[in-house]
Task: inverse folding
């Protein structure tokens, strides 16, 4: 169903991973990565365990990738890194873009996303540049990536989103850095004096838990997160204030 009710009623958990017969036909690539080559071109490529390129597709700008699991064809998506607006779906076996999507007018991507429901739903981290409000964009991959709904994350600059193992909970890192999409590649940061990063848990479209960093870490942006099967979460922090400040590696339960 290409609608909000169908998504919220049927959402279930799996993380995106490279597996299945379609990826085996490409030589069982081990890594999906976005990069810039020696000529300055942005690209998405698959690497084997021996660091050989299995395929590559050019991108219009910087990006981050995700592989669609349990799909008859080897399919991947590239999200524009902040503050970009493109989203490209690629059929990797023939190295071509098969679909181009964009965020709604006035929104931009923050570069990360994840497939859920065995690849049937795509979740992307996004921001409304007029208000600074962050949200998860929900796309139905079964219906040509139709836009379903936006779910607010009650923050600014939602960066990485993951599914907590064995649950139906999405964990979102609100790095709390506001970037206007008209910024140049240096990405002017608009709110470094008022950040207050947070981690939020979302179940069935609703925030069920929020963790804000201590005042002394108010300028420690949260960009990357990972979770173990016992729900232990690790968050990597980066100082946006004092360049000499040493950032801890947070461990949360």
Result:
């Amino acid at each position: 169903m290409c609608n909000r009710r169908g998504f919220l009623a049927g959402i279930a958990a799996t993380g995106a991973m490279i597996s299945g017969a379609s990826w085996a036909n490409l030589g069982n690539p081990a890594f999906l990565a976005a990069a810039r080559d020696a000529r300055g071109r942005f690209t998405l490529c698959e690497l084997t365990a021996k660091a050989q390129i299995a395929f590559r597709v050019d991108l219009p700008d910087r990006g981050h990738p995700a592989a669609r699991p349990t799909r008859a064809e080897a399919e991947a998506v590239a999200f524009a890194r902040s503050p970009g607006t493109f989203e490209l779906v690629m059929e990797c076996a023939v190295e071509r873009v098969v679909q181009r999507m964009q965020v709604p007018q006035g929104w931009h991507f923050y570069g990360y996303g994840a497939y859920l429901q065995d690849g049937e739903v795509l979740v992307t981290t996004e921001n409304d540049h007029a208000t600074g409000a962050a949200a998860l964009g929900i796309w139905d991959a079964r219906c040509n990536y139709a836009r379903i709904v936006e779910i607010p994350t009650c923050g600014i600059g939602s960066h990485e989103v993951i599914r907590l193992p064995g649950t139906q909970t999405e964990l979102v890192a609100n790095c709390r850095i506001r970037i206007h999409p008209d910024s140049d590649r240096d990405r002017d940061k608009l709110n470094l004096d008022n950040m207050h990063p947070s981690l939020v848990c979302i179940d069935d479209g609703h925030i069920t838990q929020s963790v804000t960093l201590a005042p002394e870490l108010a300028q420690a942006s949260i960009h990357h997160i990972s979770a173990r099967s016992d729900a232990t979460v690790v968050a990597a922090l980066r100082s946006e204030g004092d360049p000499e400040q040493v950032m801890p590696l947070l461990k949360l339960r």
Remarks:
- The first strand starts at residue 31 and ends at 36.
- The CA atoms of residues 68 and 162 lie 15 Å apart.
- Residues 1-21 have pLDDT under 50 and may be disordered.
- Residues 4-10 form the longest helix (7 residues).
